[in-house]
Specification:
The termini are far apart. The protein has one domain: Serine Threonine Protein Phosphatase 5, Tetratricopeptide repeat. Strands 1-2 form a two-stranded antiparallel ribbon. The longest helix has 17 residues. By secondary structure, the protein is mainly alpha-helical. Helix content is 61%, strand content 8%. α3 runs antiparallel to α4 and α3 runs parallel beside α5. β1 and β2 form a beta hairpin.
Amino acid sequence: MRIQMTPKTVRRLLSADGYLDLGMPNRAVEELEKIEDAGPLEGPRQLLLGIALKQQESHRDAINHLEKAARLMPSPIRAFAWRELVDSYKAVGSEEMAALAKKLGGDGEFQLKISLPFANFTLSIPATPKVA
């Protein structure tokens, strides 16, 4: 069975990434919640949702989505989701989980780039959040 990705899903992911770059996490969440079935792009969708909710300081909700992203994404990319979880775990008072997430996230510097079909762009998510 072949899973189809729609150009609309890709556009929504790219839009959400752009809104995050502009410091507009509310708009990013709106775009991501409009995606009915992300198919194989569910991992990036969960990651972007988690990052947007983290920027809104909705840490408990962010944890839920970032943990899903960590489970869905392939192992080299999974570390990025764990890194994003560190601050949210700390914000809810879970120092042990923050320490575990930090260990699982590793300490190397990298930038996550996800190539998307139907687009001449990639999602480019820096390892450290942008400060507005």
